[in-house]
Amino acid sequence: MRNHRKVVVVDHEVAFLGSLNLIDPGHEKRSARRKGLRWQNVLVRLHGPAVGAVEAVFAADWRSEAGDPPPLADQPPAPAGDDLVQVVPSGPGLDRQSALRMTTALVSGAQRRVGITTPYLVPDESLLHAVTSASMSGVEVELFTGEIADKAITTRAQRSYYDALLSAGVRVWLYPAPTVLHAKHITVDDDVVMLGSTNMDIRSFELDLEISLVVRGEGPTAAVRASEEDRRGVSHLLTAQEWSARPRRQRVVEDLARFTSALQ
Predict the structure, then answer these.
(1) For 203, how many CA atoms within 13 A lie in the half-sphere containing its CB?
(2) How far apart are the C-alpha atoms of 128 and 136, rounded to whole Å?
């Protein structure tokens, strides 16, 4: 188990969260520097009452590690706009699997389009059914992920699901190396976006402490959609024919990786 959240709160008034780790661009790995790897992330700057909720999550993390946290604000910040924001913490000790339930509900409720961006897609049965069912019912479903990632076993486990996704009509876009696409967000129709630290894999949903935002508003959704459009312009669209031609040994390795992916 680990705290996988990435949160900064400033003066009780502004919060930053997303997928960005506070680390050297090469993640302080000689192998990453040698390969020229760089991580691409998405970060949100948050104003308004939701900042108080983010700060409360930070305070709970502080208390669990170091005792009494710094004092919280006496009152939450004043509203800063018309967008509706829900802070979604998840992890061990929160027994309702809030991130998994929210993700599944958003995908299942889509009417026209779902865009999923994640470095690791290792879904449980409920989420896999939600994604494939949405696509088979006529919703345009796209997965944006990287040609490469920084966890070999989890990457191979993710690839074991491509057959099911492609056969259901999901469009799989592979962002080119040497960039590691580390952003984690979902866009639904024209006015809902979920983003934060949560990967769409079993480990993030079950074992890691995570934090996400669900925002209802056309402006934020359009901003994240623009990043999807940018990625689509440079990514490779994986086809079912191409994927079915991969070597048999590769398929075996991918299937075996599923069994240990939750521990990586």
Answers:
(1) 21
(2) 12
Known catalytic membership, residue 184:
yes
**Number of structural domains in the chain:** 1
Catalytic residue (choose from 124, 150, 163, 189): 189
Q: Which of 4, 61, 185, 201 is catalytic?
A: 4
To the query of whether residue 189 is one of the catalytic residues in this protein, the response is: yes
Q: Is 191 known to be catalytic?
A: no
Judge whether 68 lies within some domain: no
Active site includes 35?
Answer: no
The reported pLDDT for the residue numbered 28 is: 72
Range of the domain at 228: 35-42+82-263
In whole angstroms, give the CA distance from residue 45 to residue 3.
Answer: 21
28 assigned to some structural domain: no
pLDDT at residue number 61: 92
Identify the CATH number of the domain in which residue 188 sits. Answer: 3.30.870.10
Alpha-helical regions (H) of 67-194:
98-108, 125-136, 152-159, 162-167
**Helix 125-136 / helix 98-108 crossing angle, nearest 10 deg:** 10
CA angle 97–102–103, rounded 5-degree value: 105
Residues in Cβ contact with 254 at an 8 Å cutoff, skipping those fewer than 6 apart: 156, 157, 159, 160
Which residue ranges of the chain lie beneath pLDDT 70? Answer: 27, 261-264
**pLDDT digit string, tens, across residues 51-61:** 999 999 999 99
**Active site annotation includes 182:** yes
DSSP state for residue 37 in the 8-state scheme = -
**Three-state DSSP string of 39-55:** EECCEEEEECCHHHHHH
- Per the residue annotation, which of 11, 68, 82, 95 is the catalytic one? 11
